[in-house]
Design a protein that fits this description.
By secondary structure, the chain is of the alpha+beta class. It has 2 domains: about 35 residues, no CATH class; about 140 residues, Nucleoside Triphosphate Pyrophosphohydrolase. It contains 3 helices and 10 strands. A 4-stranded mixed β-sheet has the order 7-4-9-8, with helices on both faces. Strands 1-2-3 form a 3-stranded antiparallel β-sheet, with no helix packed on it. A hairpin with a 4-residue loop joins strand 1 and strand 2. The longest helix is centred in the last third of the chain and has 14 residues. It starts with 10 loop residues before the first strand and ends with a helix.
């Protein structure tokens, strides 16, 4: 069975090419098979996403504008691992509350993946949330988040949308497919 093999190849040196608000662009020089290579990539803090399901086998998706692709995308509630000392599970619960105004009674790790490993260090852990109840938060959504549209969607409809390439956000695609597999759909 195929399994990714982590390997530690220390950087000989790292150059900061661009310092961003959320992530940086770096050039790392490292030895690989007897030669020094240099690779530019986005250094990312990592993220979590939450696929929430209710008793009717509907999943909670949000519609969010994404400037790089010029589209409103259907996504899972998600966010950065950018709070010092916060566990991924706590971050997932926080993002669910901030983006949907729901609290989950149960949360469990579903799947982790690298978003774009050829040029980005981002790893996204997807959590399955259940036992949801509405809640009131004091979180103020701004920017593109001000226009979020949380919507309950039948899991089978989300699957069909993915297979027609209508839903393209990678965390949503992977999360929905992993949940369908877990449920035997």
């Amino acid at each position: 069975m195929p399994k990714d093999l982590p390997i530690e190849l220390p950087a000989n040196r790292t150059e900061l090419v661009f310092k961003g608000r959320v992530w940086d662009v770096v050039t790392e020089h490292f030895d690989f098979q007897g030669k020094e290579l240099a690779r530019d990539f986005i250094r990312h803090p990592g993220a979590v996403a939450v696929i929430a399901i209710n008793e009717q086998q509907e999943v909670l998706l949000i519609r969010q504008y994404r400037r790089p692709v010029g589209a409103y995308l259907w996504e899972l509630p998600a966010g950065l691992l950018d709070v010092h000392g916060e566990s991924p599970e706590t971050a997932a619960l926080r993002e669910l509350a901030e983006e949907t105004d729901y609290r989950a009674e149960h949360i469990e790790h579903l799947i982790t993946f690298h978003a774009s490993p050829g040029g980005n260090s981002e790893s996204i852990a997807v959590y399955l949330a259940s036992g949801l109840t509405p809640m009131v938060t004091d979180y103020v959504r701004s920017g593109e988040e001000a226009d979020l549209r949380p919507t309950w969607v039948p899991l089978t409809d989300a699957l069909e949308s993915i297979m027609r390439s209508e839903m393209k956000n990678p965390a949503a695609v992977i999360g929905v497919l992993a949940l369908a597999r877990k449920l035997g759909i």
